[in-house]
Design a protein that fits this description.
The complex is a heterodimer. Chain A is an alpha/beta fold. Chain A has three helices and eight strands. In chain A, strands 1-8-7-3-4-5-6-2 form an eight-stranded mixed β-sheet. By secondary structure, chain B is an alpha/beta fold. Classes of the chains: A alpha/beta, B alpha/beta. Chains A and B meet through α1, α2 and α3 of A and α2, α3, α9 and α15 of B.
Chain lengths: ~140, ~425
């Protein structure tokens, strides 16, 4: 399984276990900026940790501070390994744009239709700097 | 569509100073959004001065070091500290120092020290049809919907970047054709007693946000203007449960004198007919606490309380002593009035803890109980308190919140939808 995705924000290549969210999330109030843990008790993936994962986002909701939370995750080394978005979210991705201005290393953000998310669920995923999305051979046992 | 920049904009973006950094952030966002150009803006409301971690402080200080200043009127949303000294913030060093440095950096950038999430009740009311760049989801939705000024949902950092360059990407809700309603949210099936109650607005806002997501809807079935504080509560709840940036209410909000005028086509793409059962489920969904005999605190004021809401609070307390504290969050604009008329002293004597410049879900104020129960009349507090404070939430009207705070146990008045 592989796909060529549109690059939304360039960054470093990433690999990690796919975390496919099944509901939109508000980063502010929904994700702990220190740990990357999903803190929203109403979210179906409550308790999962996004740090080091290839995060598939069907959508985002809520606070306009999502960018601040994502930038703080980058600064704390707890960002996802890459972000895969159904559609560009200017509020969230601003966290990556500003982190790049600050000279910090940021993960890639790419665009992929959410109907394709299920192909990657729980698998090891590579995101290339060219926007390519590919599966690891076998099941994910990486250390990313 | 590619972004066309004027020679002046290009020259600013090439700069190594703070304005250059701000312009690059604005233009990168514009490219991401597919905006063809930048447009001038009349004002900004900046949500970026709330401390979430050191990165935001370092960013603001980088702008200050680069000599940046805001080019248009810019009010500030809440910070992480109560600079007025009304409440004790449990933020420890070194975070406390970093939060203070952040607030100081935004002051140096030329922003007004408003420190409120309700700037529209603190004298910042842009004109109908004007383009502005506002952050803070409830302020955005109020600005668009109730004032009829035009803003997208500006995220942290883009708001200050737009303020510094005085421009914003031309896309989304800045364009009149994108402000029309696609769907109808009909509340005429609900009882008039429910619609006249205070809880109707946060409950319906929460339902609206979940049902419409980021689409634009027009609410029908409202016979008279419910008042600005009700619209404030509706928008805040809708922007918490969904990605709502603009709503219309037929016959109430300025761009919707009637349904026909504001609909994008002759017929809506969809119509949501709200039933009493839907409203009851939405109301129940605002609470997360299991059945409980006691509560630990009440929190009100998200968005920040207006002077009129403080009058209601004092009337409901009626001089009684509270068993558990009511945290009443507000801005310094309302605080000044409370001090002038002696109300602050009276409320504090009853056991109200006034929180100024900030609020209980953005910075640690309430005791860390582990399994505390919080009662609130705010749809926004109900949404965010569990994740941000660890308190389970009970949602109720202001009157029930006050009775519960007096008795120390939850009291609910039944209001059938």
């Amino acid at each position: 399984m592989s796909a060529a995705a549109e690059i939304l924000v360039p960054g470093k290549a990433g690999e990690g276990e796919a975390l496919v969210l099944t509901a939109p999330i508000s980063f502010w109030g929904g994700v702990d900026p220190k740990t990357g843990r999903i803190a929203d008790v109403r979210h179906p993936q409550h308790g999962e940790v996004i740090a080091g994962r290839v995060l598939f986002l069907p959508g985002t909701i809520g606070s306009s501070s999502a960018s601040a939370v994502l930038m703080e995750l980058v600064h704390n080394g707890r960002a996802p390994a890459a972000l895969v978005l159904h559609e560009p979210d200017a509020i969230l991705l601003l966290g990556l744009i500003v982190a790049r201005e600050m000279g910090w290393e940021t993960p890639m953000a790419v665009r992929l239709g959410r109907d394709q998310f299920d192909d990657y669920r729980g698998r090891g995923v590579n995101i290339g700097t060219d926007g390519s999305i590919s599966l690891h051979a076998g099941s994910w046992s990486g250390t990313a | 569509m590619s972004l066309a920049l004027s020679p002046e904009e290009q020259a600013i973006a090439a700069g190594r100073d703070g304005a250059g950094m701000a312009m690059r952030i604005v233009t990168e966002s514009a490219r991401l959004l597919g905006a063809p150009r930048l447009i001038p803006i009349a004002s900004t409301h900046i949500d970026g001065a709330l401390y979430h971690g050191d990165s935001g402080t370092l960013f603001a200080e980088r702008l200050v070091e680069g000599g940046a200043k805001v080019a248009v009127r810019s009010t500030l949303n809440v910070g992480a500290l109560d600079l007025m000294g009304c409440s004790r913030i449990r933020l420890e060093e070194p975070q406390r120092g970093m939060a203070r440095r952040m607030m100081e950096a935004y002051r140096k950038l030329g922003c007004e020290q408003s420190w409120t999430c309700a700037p529209y009740q603190a004298g910042h009311r842009p004109a109908l049809g004007s383009d502005v760049a506002w952050g803070e989801s409830n302020a955005v939705v109020f600005c668009n919907s109730v004032l009829g000024a035009r803003t997208n949902r500006y995220g942290d950092f883009l708001d200050i970047a737009c303020a510094i360059v005085g421009r914003a990407p031309d896309y989304g809700l800045h364009r009149p054709e994108n402000r029309r309603a696609q769907l109808v949210f009909d509340v005429s099936g609900l009882s008039s007693s429910f619609l006249a109650s205070e809880i109707a607005w946060p409950v319906l806002g929460s339902l609206y946000g979940r049902e419409v997501g980021n689409a634009i809807g027009v609410v029908t079935g409202i016979s008279s203007h419910p008042g600005e504080d009700a619209l404030k509560a509706f928008g805040a709840a809708a922007a918490s449960s969904g990605a709502v940036g603009l709503f219309h209410i037929a016959g109430v909000t300025p761009e919707a004198p009637d349904v026909e005028t504001i609909l994008a086509g002759p017929e809506p793409e969809s119509a949501i007919r709200v039933t009493p059962e839907m409203a009851a489920r939405a109301r129940a969904g605002l609470s997360t606490a299991a059945a409980t005999k006691t509560i630990d605190a009440v929190a009100i004021g998200s968005p920040h309380l207006s002077h009129a809401e403080f009058e209601s609070l004092e009337r409901l307390i009626a001089g009684r002593r509270l068993t558990v504290p009511i945290y009443a969050c507000t801005g310094r604009h309302a605080l000044a009035l409370l001090e002038r008329d002696g109300r602050r002293k009276r409320l504090e004597a009853s056991g109200v803890i006034i929180v100024a410049d900030t609020c209980v879900v953005v910075t640690p104020i309430m005791p860390d109980l582990g399994n505390g129960v919080l009662m609130t009349n705010s749809g926004k507090f109900a949404h965010y308190a569990p994740g941000n404070t660890g308190y389970a939430v009970l949602y109720a009207s202001l009157a029930d919140c006050v009775e519960s705070a007096v008795l120390g146990r939850p009291v609910f008045t039944d209001i059938a939808a």
